Amino acid sequence: MLVHTNKMISLKGLLFLISLFNQSQSQAWFHAKSSHQANLLNLDQLKYVSGLSDMQRFDVTVDPILVPRVVGTPNHARVRQYIMDQMQSLGWDVGTDKFTADTPRPHGKKTFENIITTLDSNAQRRLVLACHYDSKYTRDGNFIGATDSAVPCAMMITLAKDLAPKLDQLKKSNSQVTLQFIFFDGEEAFKDWNSRDSIYGARNLARKWESTSYPAQNRDGTNELHRMDLMVLLDLLGARNPNFYSYITSGDRWFQHSANIEQRLRGANLLSTSNQIFRNDFAPGGIEDDHIPFMQRKVPILHLITTPFPDVWHTNGDNKSVLDYNTIDDLMKILRVFVVEYLQVNV
Fold it and tell me: Would you indicate the residue range of the signal peptide (predicted)?
């Protein structure tokens, strides 16, 4: 009996020590996230990263996405496969989150499939860029959604292509922070936007990752969502004269950093347009989009969405003709610098 008791005490002591170790590990992890600093580029490095622009590459990338792509249609499946093929060709890990959900009558049950692509799945933390790849259902079936959100999809894919050699080096360095892209499905409402008829993919993935422990079988309650340093959500991009405002406190630090990137690029005459994109005003309020279920679960959010919405929003006029390539080029320069500085990529 005495020996058995000692074994029990030893086991409890071991479990206690493991618990303390796990807590210290998670505390260090959370501190690294909250205290993360960008590595600012000097002028020569800014010129190099901005000089990676290739709008012909962007044009070739966006064209296959510029089709109606309503959930459940052949075009939707083709675009999904195209995005996956593009990212796989760059050596990224590609997976999907497939599920079914009820939609309003007469649309019924639909199958949705988020696309999750990760530069280095072994890295503990992620800088996440996200957008949606579905387009809105309309009766005539002609809505393309160039800004909403074919262009954001193509911007992300093109960024991965532009930075491919540098990102490959980052992956080989075993950095603790990697780059992850999420292409959400089912952002658009089938009937009227509400909490049940919208952001189907984002709601499902946020729930799924919240219930998925990371590391596996840990005792401190951390999950896949805790791996996300920041979600940068892109939406309604590509038309002339976009304005971004900071309205989410958790991502304001990185909004200000983005504004600083724009100022540095503009000061070096590396941007083509004269419109100030990042506005200094903090505008408390809210725009419902794919970030909501993640924000509700305490994921820091940087929401890059044109405010006010483009004039062609949810009309058949949201097609390639509305796109301004100088604006897109400037947005991509800012985004490239942001990614390079955040991930501390060696350039």
Answer: 1-26
